[in-house]
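The data are quoted verbatim for completeness:
=====
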Amino acid sequence: MQITPAEIAETLAMVSKQHLDIRTITLGLNLRGCTDNSIDAIARKVYDRMTKAAEKLVPTAEQLEREFGIPIVNKRISVTPIAEICAATDATDFTPIAVAMDAAGKEVGVDFVGGFSALVHKGASSADKRLMESIPNALSATDNVCSSVNVGSTRAGINMDAVLKMAGIIRATAEATADRQCIGAGKLVVFCNAVEDNPFMAGAFHGSGEADEVVNVGVSGPGVVRAVLSDLPKDADLTTVAEAIKATAFKITRAGELMAREASRRLGYAQGILDLSLAPTPAPGDSVAEILEAIGVGQCGGPGTTAALAMLNDAVKKGGVMASSSVGGLSGAFIPVSEDAGMIRAAERNALCLEKLEAMTCVCSVGLDMIAVPGDTSIEEIFGIIADECAIGMINNKTTAVRLIPAIGKTVGDRLDFGGLLGYAPVMPVNRNAGTVFAHRGGHMPAPLNSLKN
């Protein structure tokens, strides 16, 4: 499908007036050739591989920005899950690899590096266990490295031992970065049904079915959708609202398709997926919560919020798949608290609670994202939140995730300030009735009946 000059002109108007941007160009890299029995040798190989493969990523993205006038907010790298390249080493701490990833990312000028990761949904290898145990130290010793662990899937069920382990690691990571607003936990996500071509952080990693180098692009544009809905009459019915969202998503995705094609061609790497998720920022007018309010919900979190979000998510997907043959990743609507000015406002007014956010994750594109909880939240309570979210993903055959930040030394009413795109997070109350038995039963939650599809 050809991209016309009229489309480009319309896109430029979206950029100048409605906060349209390309949220990220993420270069996925296969690191399987970096394996060694020496942890230091692996670290050196990882650094060399990343710096050589990504040396033109940022200059190419900046050139595209200048030529097309569309901002590219982040340039990122995702790599093979690090646990997968560490089976040959007997090192107990994988932090040197994270430090090498961080140094390589800074050398080539990217904003984040993802892939300090492990996939343990059916079981954990020795390397997987050592990686998970390395996460608190690795994320406290680096600035831009992100970590993810997949603990469940529809086909495999949920590894409940891994869920409990990650609950403790989340808390330990927050404690290790307590002097920096507990930001380590903000770079750590626990998944069910993780996808292998996600360009967004903190959950990006380069999956086993991918080519050696792949360019994945994540678009955004909640401000554009909100502006379109604001122009609709108040008596427009929901079919009209859905059609307006769908048409807008088509246009946003076309802009991303153009940039993805050009980035792939100029870098000489395979074109991967286009993730059309509506990814908010703390900037005024760039909020998914405000889209829901423009649809007609009085305050995000109030009755009707989940229904409005379901319609939004579906319309975004329908519009996107008509605009590109490469739509993938997560693709839908993100509902992070700290990164969305409307979500922050709703949480501060007590209109939005953790339980309502959990309900919303049944119909959004990911899960509980960038949520600050009291610093004394117990391991069992964190476990329960992760387990609940994984169960939603497992049963509904969708990606769900938890990026929870225990605010060490803080309580409800306080806040964590991260700055930039991460914004700030009001500390939200947690239901204290988790108990102590469920978390410690251990074992494996069996896959649901709907996993039997063959």
In short: The chain has a mean pLDDT of 90.
